[in-house]
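A favour, since you know our structure tokens better than I do. Go ahead and set the record down below.
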Amino acid sequence: MIQKSKILFYLLASKQTSLGASTIYCRLVLNNQRKQFSTGISISIKEWDKVKQRVKGKNPEAESINICLSQIRWKIHSYLLPSVHFKVIP
């Protein structure tokens, strides 16, 4: 049985700090069940690309955060989902 999964990264603008920063959250959807958690990474809302679910720019900080997000995505795929046949929905 093929199960659908989706991994999303997003910011909660409602939890913005006084400096304009917000924490990046990760949401895992597997078989219509959602689990979400904080990545512990905070950035300015202006620096976030909603469509790409990445930090904008090529500066070292942005690239470092984007690498961390890719590692989180990879860990979810490799540790939580290897025994499940799934179809990844971008």
The chain has a mean pLDDT of 84. Residues 3-88 form one domain. The two ends are 19 Å apart (CA to CA). The beta strands are 3-11, 21-30, 33-44, 48-49, 54-55, 86-88.
